Amino acid sequence: MEERFNFTRISALIVDGDRYSTGIVSQILRGFGLSRHFISTNGADAQKYLAAEKFDLLITECMLPDMNAGTLVRWVRRHSSVRVRYMPVVMLTGYADVSHITAARDSGVNSVVRKPVAPTTLFDHITWSARTERPFIEADGYIGPCRRFRFGEASPGFNRRSTDHGPDETTVQRTDDGVLEETVT
Amino acid sequence: MGKCCKIIPVKNRLGQLLRTPGGIARGEAVAAAGTAVETLRAEYVNAIPGEIGALESIVMASGRRQIPVSQLKAMLDRAGRLLTLSGTFGFDLLDEVVKRFCDLVVGMIEKDIGDAAPVDVHLRAMRLVCPGGPELGENEADHMLSGLERVHTHYGIQRLHPELAEQQPQVE
């Protein structure tokens, strides 16, 4: 039996200065059955929405009129509310955004989708985020979902190979609240 | 002193919500989304000439001579909207011309070229392939694209996504 996904209880925020893009993404989400979604045309308003409302998914364009989305995502990833901080983020990139993609990805997004957004692509990226039990990494230079996971691939698991660490020595300890603390010396 | 990295198992709230009873299969969801997007076609396709007009206004404001970098960036942003429309609603030739326009503008910014002439040529090409305009035959389309290619070669402009060039019809 084909897997089914219930979008009706999901609340999403779409952030994009391109009104056509927000219109199209809104229609795609409506088609999936998701009716609770809000649109913000810039990063500052998005921050206000995110602080005031409860969202389950953030879809943001890479380049916003008032900030690049990396700034917005870094703000999300450092938010005091766990619900905001760990929210799945899909980043949309335009044809000419080549130079910004790496920086945006490093800001802590879950996946990157090239515009114009096709229904199949958006469906697959959202449901992949939903299927994947992906831990979060909080390190000095990065806060976001573990980047060991690549779109479309199965979960690589929580255990890291010692060979991934090169010559460094790594100690991993589980704290009382279930967090794995990894110390590289 | 070592670098500390926390690996935090996170509750997959989105996954939990999506797995609640009911819902929609992928094929149904994609078909419904496609139908919903189609309801925008008339309004959005009608907006394409206006978006090209907005780009033309920027060139006009420059007196058709030198375009400052700030205006080139504004054009690039505006061109992104055109790509959203051409890509979503299947105007392949317009899509290709706008992509080449983006290649050009990014190259001009990188090389600090402000000449309005190559921009103007691309805007004329956009008008030519704009929905509602004259239908171009395959040879005419190839001829137009090869003309744009020559402009790029003249200014030493590279494609932003060279891999896309292989997917396009060959031009002489």
What would you say this structure looks like, in words?
The complex is a heterodimer of chains A (185) and B (172). By secondary structure, chain A is of the alpha/beta class. Chain A has helices at residues 19-32, 43-52, 69-77, 82-85, 98-105, 119-131; strands at 4-5, 11-15, 36-40, 57-61, 89-93, 111-114, 136-138, 143-145, 170-174, 180-184. Chain A is built from six helices and ten strands, in the order ββαβαβααβαβαββββ. In chain A, the strands form three sheets. A five-stranded parallel β-sheet of chain A has the order 3-2-4-5-6, with helices on both faces. In chain A, β7 (136-138) and β8 (143-145) form a beta hairpin. Chain B has a domain at 42-159: HPT domain (Four Helix Bundle (Hemerythrin (Met), subunit A), Up-down Bundle), CATH 1.20.120.160. In chain B, α4 (48-61) packs antiparallel against α5, α5 (69-88) packs antiparallel against α6 and α7 (116-129) runs antiparallel to α8 (138-155). The termini of chain B are far apart. The interface between A and B is large, with 67 and 54 residues. β1 (4-5) of chain A pairs antiparallel with β2 (24-25) of chain B.
Short description:
Chain A contains six helices and ten strands. By secondary structure, chain A is α/β, with parallel strands linked by helices. Chain A has one domain: Response regulator (Rossmann fold, 3-Layer(aba) Sandwich), CATH 3.40.50.2300.
Shape of chain A: globular
How many beta-strand segments of chain A?
Answer: 10
User: Would you list the SSEs of chain A in sequence order as H and E?
Assistant: EEHEHEHHEHEHEEEE
Count of individual helical segments of chain A: 6
Number of separate strands of chain B: 2
State the CATH superfamily name of the domain at 42-159 in chain B.
HPT domain
CATH class of chain A: Alpha Beta
> What is the topology, as strand order, of the major beta sheet of chain A?
3-2-4-5-6
- Determine the CATH superfamily of chain A: Response regulator
What's the overall average pLDDT of chain B, rounded?
90
Instruction: Specify the structural class of chain B.
Output: mainly alpha
